[in-house]
Amino acid sequence: VKIGEKINPSARKELRESLKKGDFSVLRRYVVEQKDSADVLDINVAIEGIDEYSVLRKALSIVENIGGVPVSLDSPNAEVLG
Predict the structure, then answer these.
(1) What is the per-residue burial (b if ≥16 Cβ within 10 Å, else e) of 29-50?
(2) CB crowding 58-77: b at 16 or more within 10 Å, else e
(3) What is the pTM of this model?
(4) Is residue 6 within 8 Å of 12, Cβ to Cβ?
(5) Is residue 48 a contact partner of residue 20, using CB atoms and an 8 Å limit?
(6) Are 53 and 30 in contact (CB under 8 A)?
(7) Phi first, then psi: what are they for 79, rounded to 5°?
(8) What are 11-69's pLDDT values in tens digits?
């Protein structure tokens, strides 16, 4: 199973900064770049200072609208995943 792991702001400053601004264009680009080569997209939006629950839901909506690949939701906060 190939997992696309680019949607993780801990190692991607560009993604981290865009999510803090409420800008999902970088996330969209990462989804498009990975959707044809990954079996599953790992989505992690955990960064300090944001409403992780809301941002994760928006990210999931974007991935679903682009379509074509299952997702794995990733968070250090179990309540966000519930």
Answers:
(1) ebbeebeeebeebbbbbbbeeb
(2) bbeebbeeeeebebeebbee
(3) 0.90
(4) yes
(5) no
(6) no
(7) -65, -30
(8) 899 999 999 999 999 999 999 999 999 999 999 999 999 999 999 999 999 999 998 88
